[in-house]
Amino acid sequence: MKKIKKIILCILSLFLVLCLYQWYIQSKDTYRFKSVTYTQKTLPKEFNGFTIGYLSDLNLSTKEDLNRLKKAVKEFNQKDVDLVLFGGDIYSDSSFEIEKVSQTLKNIQSHYGKFAVMGEKDQSDSTNCTNLLTEAGFEVLHNESRSIYYKDAVIDLLGLENTGDCSGLINENNNNHFKIALVHQPDYFTQIKESSVQLQLSGHTLGGYYKLPFIGSIETKEKGKKYVSGKHVNNGTTLLISNGFHKESNDQHRFLTYDEINIIKLKK
């Protein structure tokens, strides 16, 4: 009996240490680059090895956040990605240092273009945020599609805003193309998986902030309740959710989730 009590005490102690460590470390100025290989047999062979840098939920609220972003952009450029996508939410609250933020995002390098969609925070100041991203070299897609050409092959990018209905962007000309849907809120996957889209990229939920072993993410958001973090596959469509680059100003802690920038490698 004493041995069992000691084992239980050790487990509880280790769990407490882990909690305190995660709470302290992940409230600091840390982020990671998360590399994911996405394999799909319908991907054009020319796109095998094509890389996408996916950045979402900057949630800038202070000048320190902007300095952190500048540092991350320098590291990001060393990844030498082919395409850059931004999944929405530049600011956590009100906008500031618009020109400096735009210049920082302009410094992001890409071989085959930079595209963005709006998050719900961006939409509250749509004109300024659209102008900021445009000046930074991003094309902002408002329920629009764009073709990405590479080595004489093509894939289609669908930029969706407040909808999972991409039927108006799919026609006889691109129905058989490999398609990526970029939409801020992950729960639109319920609709998108019923279309001919192979890959959906979303953010918004920040990974649920707090993730408990065997339970999963415990904090959800509107349009981010069913799909909160990680990878989901249904009906031949894959959803990848980014934890986002930074926490919101009203909650500066995480547990077993991480601030991140995603590097996605496409594989045939």
Topology:
Elements: H1 2-25, E1 32-39, E2 51-55, H2 63-77, E3 83-86, H3 98-106, E4 114-116, H4 120-123, H5 126-135, E5 139-140, E6 144-150, E7 153-160, E8 179-183, H6 189-192, E9 199-202, E10 211-212, E11 216-217, E12 230-234, E13 237-241, E14 260-267
Parallel strand pairs: 1-14, 2-3, 3-4, 4-5, 7-8, 8-9, 9-13
Antiparallel strand pairs: 2-14, 6-7, 10-11, 12-13
Helix pairs in contact: 2-3, 3-5
What attributes characterize this protein structure?
single chain; 268 residues; alpha/beta; Purple Acid Phosphatase, chain A, domain 2; 2 domains; 6-stranded mixed beta sheet; 6 helices; 14 strands; globular
Care to describe what's here?
With 268 residues, the chain is of the alpha/beta class. The chain folds into two domains: 30 residues; 237 residues, Metallo-dependent phosphatases (Purple Acid Phosphatase, chain A, domain 2), CATH 3.60.21.10. 25% of the residues lie in helices and 25% in strands. The strands form three sheets. A six-stranded mixed beta sheet has the order 1-14-2-3-4-5, with helices on one face. The protein has a six-stranded mixed beta sheet with strand order 6-7-8-9-13-12, with no helix packed on it. A two-stranded antiparallel ribbon has the order 10-11. Strand 6 and strand 7 form a beta hairpin.
